[in-house]
Amino acid sequence: MKPSLVLKMGQQLTMTPQLQQAIRLLQLSTLDLQQEIQEALESNPMLERQEEGDDFDNSDPLADGDELPNPGSQEVSFQDAAPTVETLEDGEWHERIPSELPVDTAWEDVYQTSASSLPSSDDDEWDFTSRTSAGESLQSHLLWQLNLAPMSDTDRLIATTIIDCIDNNGYLEESLEEILESFDPELDIELDEVEVVLHRIQQFEPAGVGARDLRECLTLQLRQLPADTPWLDEAKRLANDYLDLLGSRDYSQLMRRMKLKEDELRQVIELIQSLNPRPGSQIEASEPEYVVPDVVVRKHNDRWLVELNQEAVPRLRVNPHYAGFVRRADSSADNTFMRNQLQEARWFIKSLQSRNETLMKVATQIVEHQRGFLEYGEEAMKPLVLHDIAEAVGMHESTISRVTTQKFMHTPRGIYELKYFFSSHVSTSEGGECSSTAIRAIIKKLVAAENPKKPLSDSKIAGLLEAQGIQVARRTVAKYRESLGIAPSSERKRLM
After folding, report:
1. What are 224-230's contacts with CB under 8 Å, separation 24+?
2. CA-CA 20 to 30 A from 454: which of 57, 120, 196, 258?
3. Residue 6 — φ and ψ, nearest 5°?
4. What range(s) does the RNA polymerase sigma factor 54 core-binding domain occupy (predicted)?
């Protein structure tokens, strides 16, 4: 076989670095995008924020006739995520400080400080704790109370071990015998000592913490209620002796054994239901998560308007001062570095523009499809899949998936992730289609209006939906009910 030269022609899709950057920015959430922008500002001297009131400069020495994207338009506007801080005049920062000050002079009388910008302590809306405190775990909360309780060293060791065995719901995971075995035999600790210390911990906050089962948890909470609480004795008796009957909702047996009338038993059960079966959940250990909407939808003159959240992303531009240092014919290392940084800044701004334009197209089509939801609520939600939006905007379904992931829309009915507006469909008797989200809303409405003594079964709900022209199987109703967090009919039964 002789070697030969063959000429072939073909097409190949190449993922350039600029395209990779645009795709990566497209799938970032607003908070992640703000962090990405901050990192770009710190690493690229050619990028800078445009403050409020500054004229936007489109000039770019290396643009070759192309203008930078104009963020002033509604679709591609990049506004500061946080309120702009007005800078003071230079002369105000260079005041003459006297060499000697009167003893009654306050710091703020001479030095300018930003502390005055904080709300005063008399402001009812200012909550220092909610703005400065971090999440606290249940164990750290119990240890804090333990440090305030007078105990011997041995009892404090036992208490610390018990606290370590309490789960996030507030229940003691290990038995007292297992806890006793974990101690050094030389300490000569007895089981009675461990139980006494456990009773001390069970008096801590939140009420019911340290319980070994649900019965003990409810009893501990009832003991901490005022003695004059109505039906307190009956509630203690129910929690101690008849909790199984309450779980199975056998109200006739409860009335017979406790010798109570239906109205009296209802008030006792209401007192039991006011307690927290998971007391540890009151102590939130995780940090709060904030949602920044990317798109704002509002109604104006009977028309639904879609706008980008102009406070979500900072406004960026190329620094004209540094860009002016770039020389076209210079091939030195410094000039090459500045040229590359300028090119990266231009591509970064263009990627942000492309992200916002794509987001606006997708959000506008979603609002166009789901006007019924905006007007009438979940029951008017229409079936919608990624292919429908991709076909409308002329993009691939994978792009639509990236756009709708971790992106949120602020509507008059609340803040929803863009993926919320996509749902499968169920056929109707008239040949149409009904959204699964609308079916869930109807199921939720039917359960809310049911007779508490005779709750609707899944088969009955399927029959009611069929009467409305919606053909849904019983197992589908059960799946939708479970996704809504609604218990089965046997567990929803209660007294009036």
Report:
1. 229/271, 230/267, 230/271
2. 258
3. -125, 130
4. 128-322
Short-list 135, 384, 161, CA closest to 283: 135
Residue with tokens 């002369």: 91
Tokens standing for residue 9: 């022609």
- How many Å apart are CA 233 and CA 424, to the nearest integer? 52
Amino acid letter for position 177: E
Contacts for 320 with CB less than 8 Å, ≥ 6 apart: 57, 59
In 3D space, the residue among 17, 111, 2, 15 whose CA is nearest the CA of residue 351 turns out to be: 17
The Cα–Cα gap between 18 and 343 comes to: 10
Termini Cα distance of the chain: 93
Please choose, from the candidates 304, 307, 340, the residue with its C-alpha nearest in 3D space to the C-alpha of residue 323: 340
The tokens of 494 are what?
A: 């209660």
CA distances from 161 to 156, 192, 316 (A): 9, 15, 55
B/e letters for 205-228, b = 16+ CB within 10 Å, e = fewer, are ebbbbbbeebebbbbbbbeeeeee
Under the banding of pLDDT at 50, 70 and 90, the label for residue 134 is: low
Average pLDDT of the residues in 285-289: 65
What span, in angstroms and rounded, lies between the C-alpha atoms of 128 and 117? 14
Name 478's Cβ contacts closer than 8 Å, sequence gap at least 6.
Answer: 458
Closest by Cα among 190, 415, 377, 168 to 292: 415
Q: Which residues contact 484 (CB under 8 A, 6 or more apart)?
A: 440, 443, 444
Q: Quick one: fold of 425-492?
A: Arc Repressor Mutant, subunit A (1.10.10)
Distance CA 166, CA 287 (A): 21
d(CA 241, CA 253): 12
Q: What is the DSSP letter of 384?
A: B
Pair 316, 77: CB distance under 8 Å: no
Q: Are 75 and 308 in contact (CB under 8 A)?
A: yes
Decide if 436 contacts 470 (C-beta within 8 A).
no
pLDDT(389) > 50: yes
- Rounded mean pLDDT of 456-471? 86
The position carrying tokens 């979603």 is: 366
Q: Using DSSP, how many helices (H) and how many strands (E) does the chain show? A: 22, 8
Q: Which of 263, 257, 261 is nearest to 240 (CA)?
A: 257
Tens-place pLDDT, residues 304-349: 999 988 887 778 888 888 888 888 777 888 888 888 888 888 999 9
Rounded CA-CA distance 452/444 in Å is 14
Which sequence spans correspond to the domains of the chain?
18-80+288-422, 137-284, 425-492
Cα(221)–Cα(280) distance, rounded to whole angstroms? 13
